[in-house]
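Hi everyone,

Forwarding the result from last night's run.
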Amino acid sequence: MSTTVINGAELVADASGALYWPAQATLVVADLHLEKGSGFAQRHGTLLPPYDSPETLRALARAIDRYAPARVLCLGDSFHDRAAARRLAPEDADALRALVQRIDWVWIAGNHDPAPPEHLGGQVLPAVAIGPLVFRHEAEPGVRPGEISGHFHPKASVATRGRRVSARCFVEDGKRMILPAFGAYAGGLDVRDPAIRRHFGRSFVAHVIGRDRVHRFASAQLA
């Protein structure tokens, strides 16, 4: 894990890809993209192993067990498309519903899932403001102190032992943060891409997820 401060709030970037806010007992995840595999098979005929949803849900359950939060915020694109919840296997739907029923759960609407399904429980909101932080799906243009978002699936590359390694990351500049995608099949966009880079100042920090820990790199250290 890696600790940082965003707009005065001390946050923990976890190696799972989740963010934890101890002062508010709040766990935050972005871009679960549940049923992406079945969506690709249905739309494009691309056959991916149908294990993304159970793998993502197991990782989410482990993060919840680790931190025992009072609240979970899912920052949009929790479901890969509007029909994704209906494609969940019954056992996966039951596992998700059991998690939602344990905790104060908020689904923030995303571009893939503007209306997350009500039958799984939880509350659906466009954004959530808590103390010095505001949580939404996609970063808004301009200066937004305290903004925590997802959408871009950031990843970073670093040079180590003579080779280049790329991995998911949290990216922040002390004022705002973009979370990595939590979903097993979510993919990623390099933090130096203009779509991400324009939301930060001249320098930023990438908290790069390793096998079992999070590594902190200044933007100038990235490959």
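The mean pLDDT is 89.

Cheers,
N.
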